[in-house]
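Hello Y.,

Per our agreement to keep a running log of every chain we model this quarter, I'm adding this entry. I've kept the format consistent with earlier entries: sequence first, then predicted structure.
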Amino acid sequence: MRQQAEEKAEQAREKAKQGQDKAREAVEEKTEKSGLNKSE
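Predicted structure for the entry above:
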């Protein structure tokens, strides 16, 4: 049982990491666009 719980925790960490990466990419895209708009 403990092994299953550890596997689930690991999967949850991976999902959280992926979510953070996606959020970071979205923020970078927004800042790039706003940066381009500002420089124009």
